[in-house]
Amino acid sequence: MDIIMIIYYIISAFVAGLLVWNFVREKEDRERMLLYLVVLVPFVLRIFRIE
Amino acid sequence: MSRNATAKTLFVLIIGIITVVSGVQFYAHRHYRLPIVAGPGVTGVVDLSRYSAGLKGTMADTKVFILEGKEPGGKALIMADTHANEPDGILAALVFIENAVVEQGTLIVIPQFNNSASRYTRPGDGYPLFYEIPTGWGAKRFRMGDRGASPLDQWPDPDVYVHYPDRQLLSFLDARNTNRTWPGRPNGPLMEQVTDAAMRMLKRERVDIAIDVHGAETMFPVTNCIVAPERSMRIATMASLTVTAMEGFENHVEPSPQGFRGLSHREIGDYSETLPFLLEAPFPFLDQPTGPKTTDLLLNGKDPFLLSLARQGKLFVPYDESGWPVDKRVGQHCSVALEIINQYSIKNPERAIRISSVPRYADVVRNGVGFYYHDPAKAPVAAVFHD
């Protein structure tokens, strides 16, 4: 795995972390809660090298 | 617990279940190992990384089946799954591996040329992950792949793919497309390493002809045909005329464009002594204006929207209620590949390749392609290869 690919996974993990943090902080808007989780799915699948 | 906290918990549960269920399916698809039964003609099985060590241990490495005859002669390569979402190629390649007996010369078969692409599915198009071919002993399961390699194996895509060595600007997607990365280079992106390994194999083994088996949309003019560069044109023409006259299905020859780089039918001929041919059979599943991309459409090629378009004269192939079933498509590939090898052998008797026990179009249509696959559970363990 070359350095660019490793950086890509680090970026993916960072974005996933941001989404989780925003989800945790969201207290009122249910649509946003759901949206954060839906957007998180492809990042999780990529970080675990599934798809 | 507040109502919002309850909703939050519920969302985590629902999305968690969706992620796990889809993740398990994608994982099973990427790691499914297709059993291939080496038939009576197979004399050796090697990895493509034998010709380029950089592929070893990657998902791009793939099995190469060698069928060497008792009499010396020429050498032919059949490769399939260059585009892993065009399954008729691998279905035909397995018919050769599991049945062919080579009497003179050598046949080399690479059934999953873009192995990485066969372990990936097209995002957003709802492709089935698997399809099954009925056989006399049960259903044989195949992965349905995509046109390009998995981003898990080659990433990131460039903004524009600059072809090596011609520096032609191609679509960014083509960096993962092994029919745009020929002739490749050993230190390039992974898919260039795949085509580079194949070029090294063609040169080292002194392969005379290379047949790259594909499928194409019915709305695309380059279908039901052999694509050939100038050097291969005479043999392609003779093969096309012969199957059209003798076997009752339409086939024509398309010239390989000189200015369009990276394709097997262009670069193999330009960068080696091997004569390249690319086969296309109609594959309605790939057409855009169809219904859902189901396994039924994949196998039978029946679609009401295509039928409507056919009646308006919008398709480049004959199309009626019978669709374009897999047995016809695979049968065409078998016949055209055999005829190319036959025509080459007639013109080059000192480098002839004689193959028997491979069904032709009428046989495959009559018996079904599954008839020609052997039960891996009943085959000797040493004859079953998983890829």
Question: What can you tell me about this protein's structure?
Answer:
The complex is a heterodimer of chains A (51) and B (387). With 51 residues, chain A is mostly helical. Helices cover 80% and strands 0% of the residues of chain A. Chain A contains two helices and no strands. In chain A, helix 1 runs antiparallel to helix 2. In chain A, 14% of the residues are buried. The mean pLDDT of chain A is 94. Chain B is an alpha/beta fold. In chain B, the strands form four sheets. In chain B, strands 2, 3, 4, 5, 10, 11, 12, 13 and 14 form a nine-stranded mixed sheet that branches. In chain B, helix 4 packs across helix 8. The mean pLDDT of chain B is 97. At the A-B interface, helix 1 and helix 2 of A face helix 1 of B.
Largest sheet geometry of chain A: none
Largest sheet of chain B: 9 strands, mixed
Assembly form of the protein: heterodimer
**Strand proportion of chain B:** 15-25%
Give the C-alpha Rg of chain A.
Answer: 13 Å
Flag low-confidence runs of chain B.
none
Q: Mean pLDDT score of chain A, rounded?
A: 94
DSSP helix count of chain A? 2
Number of strands of chain A: 0
Which helices and strands, and how do they pair?
The complex is a heterodimer of chains A (51) and B (387).
Chain A: H1 3-25, H2 30-47
Helix pairs in contact in A: 1-2
Chain B: H1 3-31, E1 35-37, E2 44-47, E3 63-68, E4 71-79, H2 88-99, E5 101-110, E6 130-135, E7 138-143, E8 161-162, E9 169-170, H3 190-204, E10 209-216, E11 225-228, H4 233-247, E12 252-255, H5 264-271, E13 275-282, H6 295-300, H7 304-311, H8 326-347, E14 354-356, H9 361-367, E15 384-386
Parallel strand pairs in B: 4-5, 4-10, 10-13, 11-12
Antiparallel strand pairs in B: 1-15, 2-3, 3-5, 5-14, 6-7, 8-9, 11-13
Helix pairs in contact in B: 2-8, 4-8, 8-9
Features:
heterodimer, A: 51 residues, mainly alpha, elongated, B: 387 residues, alpha/beta, 9-stranded mixed β-sheet, two-stranded antiparallel sheet, 32% helix, globular
